[in-house]
Design goal:
About 40% of the residues lie in helices and about 15% in strands. With about 350 residues, it is of the alpha/beta class. The longest helix is centred in the middle third of the chain and has 15 residues. About 50% of the residues are buried. It binds ligand F0G. Ligand F0G binds next to helix 4, helix 9 and helix 13.
Length: about 350
């Protein structure tokens, strides 16, 4: 490819609204707020062996490669563009960390205020730092995500501030584009799609994206959707809200998902499942993916943890294609990574010592 150095194209000319404009509710009057999100890598894994042996192809859709390090950017480019179009001068959300980072970034880019309500003590360090540095006003509450979402919804009901949690339909519109990218790259819909489930907006968005392509005849099938909650925060699996959700995967530490009913629709219409994975299964998957060169945050690894278990249990037919969404970047949660990564002691700065330490 040659470098032409023609007129530089603005950022909004390569984000997902630009690419999927005819499938999104935008008009010429919509100011496009973009950081060049979307078009993330779809990587075919080398393993696991139990999949390879049976011709099952496992792909990771690495959405941690979005500008703020998570899939939330897909929804936020739409939500903030539409909020601005509607005249909003401030946005707000509750968050386990990634929504807040995305909201802060897109609000800064749009030049509007951003207010974030967080569960104190349960947001990974990288996410808090991002959110603060990108200029959002943070309110930490002595409560969990479910409390934060209830409060922020009440706050937005009684003020002109736009709510940008995934109960905002424009968030779902942006996030559905992940299905478009996958079908475009694979040439058809995969047979299975696994993803982590927290507040259940993303499972709703995935299903909406696949369904739109199927309904207009672009694709001839839809995947079975496999949703995975953390065992200590698995209200949909249990069939009732969890008052005190607990999991190492803080991004999905949610006891009463706002889009619960849409998650059930995605599961049932697709003949899929929503199951739980333990923190141990999540950490094993997290480390396996890292050795595939894919550093994601713990919550993201829930997708692969559950998918791998289903492969082992013989529930995925030979020759299937299975995509796992890796929702957030590993650097978001340096605390969990650091506990598993042992740094060796320093050695003298001599060739002899380096060779010995390197074990060559
Ligand atoms: N993975 C990551 C990394 C997340 O941050 C989230 C949600 C999910 C999965 C689950 O997606 O809620 O649409 O089912 N994070 C939200 C937040 C709750 O505030 O950042 P979901």
């Amino acid at each position: 490819m040659t470098l032409t150095l023609e007129k530089p194209s603005p950022l909004h000319a390569r984000g997902l609204i630009h690419r999927w404009r005819d499938r999104l509710p935008v008009t010429d009057a919509t100011p496009i707020i973009s950081l060049g999100e979307g078009d993330t890598p779809l990587v075919e894994l080398r393993g696991p062996p139990e999949a390879r042996e049976r011709g099952i192809k496992v792909y990771a859709k690495y959405d941690g490669a979005n500008p703020t390090g998570s899939f939330k950017d897909r929804g936020m480019t739409m939500a903030v563009s539409k909020a601005l179009e509607g005249g909003a001068t401030a946005i707000a959300c509750a968050s386990t960390g990634n929504t807040s980072a995305a909201a802060a970034a897109y609000a800064s880019r749009a030049g509007v205020e951003c207010i974030i309500v967080l569960p104190a003590g349960y947001v990974a360090a990288g996410k808090i730092a991002q959110t603060i540095l990108m200029g959002a006003k943070i309110v930490q509450i002595e409560g969990n995500f479910d409390d934060a979402l209830r409060l922020v919804r009440e706050m937005c009901d009684s003020s002109p501030v736009a709510l940008v949690n995934s109960v905002n339909p424009y968030r779902i519109e942006g996030q559905k584009t992940i299905a478009f990218e996958i079908c475009d790259e694979l040439g058809s819909a995969p047979e299975y799609h696994a993803l982590p489930v927290g507040n259940a907006g993303n499972i709703t968005a995935h299903w909406q994206g696949y369904t739109e392509l199927f309904n207009d005849g672009t694709t001839s099938s839809r995947p079975k959707i496999l949703g995975f909650q953390a065992a200590g925060a698995a209200p949909i699996v249990l069939g009732h809200a969890v008052e005190k959700p607990e999991t190492i995967a803080t991004a999905i530490r949610i006891g009463n998902p706002a889009s619960w009913c849409y998650a059930l629709i995605a599961r049932d219409e697709s003949n899929g499942v929503i199951e739980s994975v333990t923190d141990n299964e999540i950490l094993t998957a997290y480390q396996f993916l890292a050795r595939e060169g894919l550093f994601c945050e713990p919550a993201s690894a829930a997708s692969f943890a559950g998918a791998r278990r289903m492969i082992r249990e013989g529930k995925i037919p030979d020759g299937s294609r299975l995509v796992c969404t890796l929702t957030g970047h590993g650097l978001k949660d340096p605390g969990t990574a650091g506990k598993l990564a042992n740094l060796p002691d320093a050695v003298p700065a001599t060739l002899e010592a380096v060779i010995k330490a390197a074990g060559i």
